Predict the structure of Sarcosine oxidase subunit beta.
Amino acid sequence: MAEYSVLSLVRNALGGHRRWIRAWRDPEPKKRYDVLIVGGGGHGLATAYYLARNHGITDVAVLEKGWIGGGNVGRNTTIVRSNYLLDGNNHFYEHSLKLWEGLSRELNYNVMFSQRGVLNLAHSDGQMDAYARRGNAMRLNGVDSELLDRNGVRRLYPYLDYSANARFPIYGGLLQPRGGTARHDAVAWGFARGADRLGVDIIQNCEVTGFERSGDRITGVQTTRGTIGCGRVGMAVAGNTSRVAQMAGLELPIESHVLQAFVTEPLKPLIDGVITFGAGHFYISQSDKGGLVLGGDIDFYNSYAQRGNLPTVEHVMANGCAMMPNLRRLRILRSWGGIMDMSMDGSPIISKTPIDNLYLNAGWCYGGFKATPGSGWVFAHTIAEDRPHRFNEPLSLGRFTTGHLLDEGGKGPTPKLH
Ligand SMILES: Cc1cc2nc3c(=O)[nH]c(=O)nc-3n(C[C@H](O)[C@H](O)[C@H](O)COP(=O)(O)OP(=O)(O)OC[C@H]3O[C@@H](n4cnc5c(N)ncnc54)[C@H](O)[C@@H]3O)c2cc1C
């Protein structure tokens, strides 16, 4: 497999770009693999990559019902950060952020990771106190954070609503300078190419439709391309988790909801970081093509449809205009939806399951894109070693029976609030 480099770019340009080789193969599924990963999203592909790279396990297939990049990994608003309060989340997401920092080089694929800073706005004294506490917790764990007062925010983003009659006055904000954005589908393609190079079979158009069991073990999976035997199975199907887990006889503390995203017509450079609104759920950044990329709350009912509804569109736009009034003059160019796997405490699950050789990666709520490399790293470890990595010990499924929940937002078991 050829390395991507300036030299290969020049060589291929001179050859009329006819000699590029496929980024990954398109193999027929074998009868059996040591490890099957169900779901070819960011997490499934990263897991396969790190199984091969970190653990030398290469007899691996990733089974994807659609195409690589067609799920949430290619639908998100690309925000990457590690600004968490609770240790269980903080260490895990910081591990992920550190992997992001070297990911393009690691994969020999430009994932366009841009550390442009993520700012959370505060709109009351109470919220400033909460951000000071969160920022301190981050700093104690070696994670970068800066508490900004109103003038500090104004210096960064002078066009937010600072007027005396603003609906939600801005008091300040918490900035994570190392946070930022990445190109989402490049992440899927980079991990797919990287895993393929290490011997992993990526099998698209291959939906898992059932599991074959012998006692407490899975012996194979039924798919639309026939039955495939396996030693171990890792499930990373994001919004489809409840449905696929049900096929294996598991009921999980997860609900599926649609989350929409929007992009405006392209503009000259305006927003050079990521801004999130603290008085409602709204986040915005600017893509390299100039479009403003924005999103807000999930649609407030369960669904498996990858498209959303108008009341949520209005709700998101109202929040956006309250924060940044000049948005009113823009036109929305496109919108789309993805199915979110909302867990009951708002934190992810990377865990062994009651079935001996079935492992679970799910519950990503709004934030699984930023976790992609870290999640793949620790999930691969969990599958390879049959025990959690220290960073995903607090993310076990067992926490819902023992009560050791990671309720970062203090929202209780109400997925629509996370
Ligand atoms: C609109 C939107 C905005 C978001 N914004 C952000 C953000 O800014 N920052 C952030 O960190 N996170 C964000 N997220 C969340 C993030 O995208 C997800 O948490 C993350 O991508 C989920 O992991 P994944 O990439 O593996 O999922 P997916 O890409 O959805 O992968 C799961 C795969 O499993 C496949 N699958 C399902 N069922 C089967 C089956 N039976 N057999 C075989 N394959 C199957 C699916 O086809 C899919 O490709 C956002 C999500 C959405 C929808």
In short: Residues 125-140 form the longest helix (16 residues).
